[in-house]
Amino acid sequence: MIAYRCDGCGADIPRKALRYTVTIDVRAAYDKLEVGLNDLVRDHRAEIVGLIEQLKDKPAERLEETVYKGIKLDLCPSCQRAFIRSPLRFHPEQGMDDSGIDIDAFLRSLGFGKGNDAPGPAR
User: Is 114 part of a structural domain of the chain?
Assistant: First the structure.
């Protein structure tokens, strides 16, 4: 059985309940590389050897994260609202206020969600 847990507050999210996914790609940013004639004729061997020496004792996972890290979150509706309000300062407790709108009920009324084995209206 497929089950989800909110990565914000830790609550279980039933299989057909409304949930949100957040995908974050953290990438190192680089300026455009400009290569000149001096760069092409220079002996880079010493630089490469020095770089290898600096990196040889560091864990591969840590090195990879300095260039790229992909993060995927599952959020319940409450935590999704908190995340949207303040993505860089997201704390699960921010999602506890309820706007009075039951998005699950609305989507179920359209044929999505709990108690309905049909995939929902065609798009």
Answer: no
Nearest to 76 by CA among 90, 57, 56, 60: 90
Domains in the chain, number? 1
CA atoms within 13 A on the CB side of 25: 3
φ, ψ for residue 97, nearest 5 deg: -70, 145
Domain encompassing residue 82: 4-109
Q: Judge whether 121 lies within some domain.
A: no
pLDDT tens profile 35-73: 888 888 888 898 889 888 888 888 888 888 888 999 999
Contact between 7 and 74 (Cβ < 8 Å): yes
